[in-house]
Structures are given as structure tokens and as C-alpha cells.
User: Fold this.
Amino acid sequence: MPVDSLWLSIPLILPFFATAVLLCLGRASERLRLGLCAVTCLMMLAASVVILQQLSVQPVMVLNAGDWPVPLGITLVADLFSASMVIITALIGLVVSIYAIGAGTARFRGYFTPLFMAMLFGVNGAFLTGDLFNLYVWFEVMLMSSFILIALPGGRRQLQGALKYLVLNFIASLFFLIGLGVLYGLVGTLNMSDLALKLANHPDQLTVRSTAVLFLVAFGIKAGMFPFYFWLPSSYHVTPTPVAAVFAALLTKVGVYALVRAFALVFHGQQEFIGDILLPLGILTMLTGVLGAASQFYIPRILSFHIISQIGYMVVGLAFFTKAAMAATVFYVLHHILVKANLFLIGGIIGRKLGTQALKKTGGLYQHAPALAVLFLIPAMSLGGIPPLSGFFAKFALIREGIALNAWFTVFMASAVGLLTLYSMIKIWNEAFWKSPPSGEPIRMRPVPWTMTLPAIGLALCTVLFGLFPGTFFAFAERAADQLMNPSIYTEAVSGKSMPTPNAP
Amino acid sequence: MGFTLSQHKIMISQLLPIVIGVLFACGCYLVMQRQLVRVLLGLILLGQGANLLIFSGAGLTQNNPPVIPPDALTIEGAAADPLPQALVLTAIVIGFAVLAFAIALVLRTYQKSRSGDINTYTHSED
Assistant:
């Protein structure tokens, strides 16, 4: 099959047209619209699988919009990392579309589906773009729809959460813009590959480094990294479950993706300097996130804090900056998207069954719904890092690399945080499933539609699959990491030049 | 005053960094206030500071505008770089959209919370 770069535009065109069509279908039933979303995501999934297949023929796919030569036009680029992210975005989109049919989207007054598709449009764009300014634009597409998704239910909680989310993310975008301005003034280009080539041996290392730190702050806020994460636990849990799940799965991971792209490609020569900053920040992110979760008793809020803590592991993998650690980060990102989305979905099912997600008021689920208990245990144990589930292999790869690098403190912290994660998961287990209902009287279980349970089962199966065939997925993550560690592969495909050898300092 | 055109241009290129600095300083001060409207004004000032920074990022030049004459195929001689202006235009439009939404959100939050003091906004922390 000949490689056709036009495939790269499909994951962007599909959600864009879906948004337009859904906005026009003002009177159609929500069921029909969500079905349309699911079909769009299914087609996105098919297109991204084709992209991944073509990447086995050539390592990096490049599409120059309007056939403008690099670095003049906007370039779409897919390597293994971005292709796998696009696949998993489509998968999450599909699962959440089906879940939303059962969970109900009445609180969004008919605007859930177009905003949801617009957000996936932005997320896919961020994963596929090869231009730093274009990345900013995709970020804003994604953020604008997510602002509205948080605020739309219109209660006091949602509005206050949306406000915090908006202010901090707006400031992050400003850092990004300032960095872009300085970078353009410095080298006169914003194409990522071109930037990587020109920044590699740039004489003004001081400015390059300060710009790198600007990007670190910008992407750090978006990824929910310590000390910039405060917006996350005050906004994610106020939204209805389908939105919270898709935010938790994708939005922070776009920030992590941008961090990896920026420091593995654009600022490739600054890895030691950036690694020294990222490592302590990553460790503190793990620790503060997991400690924050320990004190919470509301399921979505516990899970929100755990997003932060898991981001820490990914950041540490990036900070180590070896091939094995990068592979661990790639594996971790993919595993975490599946598991975290699933936990939010299951939290929503618990909420539907008992009418609340506050752990003080729940109980008795193991007795009345043993199947749900098993369903919860799979992603929960995976998040805690229990073998043979996916989370174990993700943590194992990272910790093994830490030992190989003699980073004992990091290894200790990563293991300790793993234990505390398990503590939080066991807390949910005890409070929601194991203990008897607080009032003592028999509780009434509300029925849960199959459209809510099926997506959770599907994601749990994916987690089990990750755990049963870790070798296959790890081999893939290593190939992706290989590309990330050798930016020449990327720059040769985009600009036709390989990275210059670094000057001796 | 008796300045030539090129002297004016040099003055502007020295003035812009100061203006950007003042915008950032005022913006940072306002963003850290407790009153919601001040935070919003701070965001607006910060946004304008960032836009000006991109605008002057490529360096203000005294070259001709980058317009190809009707009877030529390329530009003769040095010309100003049009890209930062395209970038800043995009950034202005996006900032405008976000701030327009932010104003609506601030108004609604104020109405629902019956207070403009951010320290009382603890309902999203439950």
C-alpha cells in the first residue's frame, strides 16, 4: 500500500464536520446525535489505524498544507507517538459517546455533542501538528470547548470551577505566546523541525534556555504539574461524568504530549538543564497529588487528584531522558488514558446506582452488585500498579530505569506513591463496596442502562489486554521512544536535514 | 518637535519594551487581586502585553512593507517580516474570543455567587 500523507487530515476533518452537522441538527434527539458522535469516532479510529499502519512503511508521515514548502506553511506530522495518541483519542471518544447515551446530557441543553466533537478536533490537531504556533491554536480550540463544557450546566459549583480553570489556563496560554514571540525573534521560524535544527547549536544559549523554561511553565500548567496544578482538582469533578472522563483522559495528556514534543524535539540540546528542573517537579507532582487524594471522600475528586499524581510519573520518565525511560513514559500515557477514563466512568455508574458519589453515603455495593465490584477492581488495581495489569508494567519500566540510573530517591518515591495510590483505591473499595450502607436499612439500587456499563467493560478489557500482552505494547512504546530520542528521524522527514552534532560546551 | 521619521521609529522601538513591561506589571498586580473584575482586567492587560511582545518579537525594522509591486515577481531589497503580524492577528482574535467568554462567565458567576470576592468561591472545592 503506498503511503498517502493525506490520511493525516482525516482525524481533523471528521470531527470538524461532525461539529458543523451537530450544530445544524438543532431539533434532533440527543440519542441520534450521540450516535453520530460514536460513528464519527469509529471512522476516526479507522483512519488513525491506517495512519499507524502506514508508519510501518515510513517512520514519519508529513503533510504540508497547501503544498507550501517547510517551514513556510503549516505542517501536519505523525510519528508513532502522535499516531498512537490519535488512536486512543478516537477510542475514548467512542466510549464516552456511548456512555453519554445512558448517562444523559440534559444539563448541557443540547450543546454537549458539538462541543465534544470540537474538543476532539482540538486534541487531534494538537497531536498531529508540526508547527509550534499551530499547536497554540489547537490548544485554544480544545480549551474554548472545554471552558463551555464545564460552565454550561450553570450551577454555582460549575461556574466557579470554570472560572478557576479559565483564568489559569489563560495564563498558561500567555506563557506559551510569550515563548513563541521570543522564539520567533530569536530564530525566525516556528516549525518544530526547523526550530530543532536552528536551536541545536544556537550561540545565545541563555535566551534558548529561558524560552525553554517559558514553555515548561506553559505546558506544565496544562499538564497539571506541580506547582501549577491547582485548577485541576477544583474544576474536573464539578462536571457530569462523561465530560469529566474525557477531560481526565485527554486534556492533561495533551499537556504531557506537548512537554515531550518540546523537550525531546524542539529543545533537544537542553535535555540536561530541563531534566534537572523536571525531575524534582515530577517527584513533587506525584507526591502532592497522591497526598491530596488521601484526604478526599468524593470519588471524582479523589480521581482528579490521582491524575496529578500519575502525571508525575510521566514527567519523571521524560526527566530521565533515556530511551527506556521515554518508552516507559509513552506506555504510561497510553495506559493512564484508558484506566483513568474507566475509573471516572465507573464512578459515574456508582453514582447512578446509589444516587451519590460521596463515600460517606455509599456502601453495600459488593453485596448487591458484585459484577460492578469486579469491574471497578480491574482499573483500580491497574492504577495502583498490581501485576499483571497494565499499571504494573508502566511503573515497573520506570522504576527499573531509575535503578539503572542509580536514582534511588526517585525510585523510593515512585514506589511509595504507588502504595499510597493503592491506599486511595482501597479506600474507595472499602467505602463504596465493602462496608454496609451507612443508614443500616436496605438500600435501593437504581437500574443502570447497558450503554453505561458496556463502555466501562470495553475499557477494562483494553486494560487487561495491555496486561496480558505487555511485550507487544512495550515493543511498540520502545519504537516510539526510539523516534523521540533520535530527533534526526523527525527532522529528516520534515526538513530533509539531520540534527547537527552538538558543539562541545 | 523636530524629529525625523527614522528618529521616531527608533524611539518607538525603544519605547515598546517599556510599554510591554508596564502592561505585564499592571496585569500581574491585577490578576493577584481578590476582586473578580480586577482579575479580568488583569487578564486583558496581560493578553495585550503578550500580543505586543510577539509584534515586536521579530524586531522593528525600517524596511519597506512586504508588498510585491504589480510588475514584479519578487520583492526588491529588504522588506519587513509580515509573519509576526499574522501571528499577532491570530493571537488577538483568539484572545478576544476567550475574553468575551470570560466576561460572560464572570458576570454569571457573580450573579450566582452573589459576591465578587474570589476568596468566597469555595463551592467548587466540595
Notes: Chain A has 19 helices and two strands. The two ends of chain A are 46 Å apart (CA to CA). Chain A has a mean pLDDT of 89. Chain A touches chain B through 39 residues (CB under 8 Å).
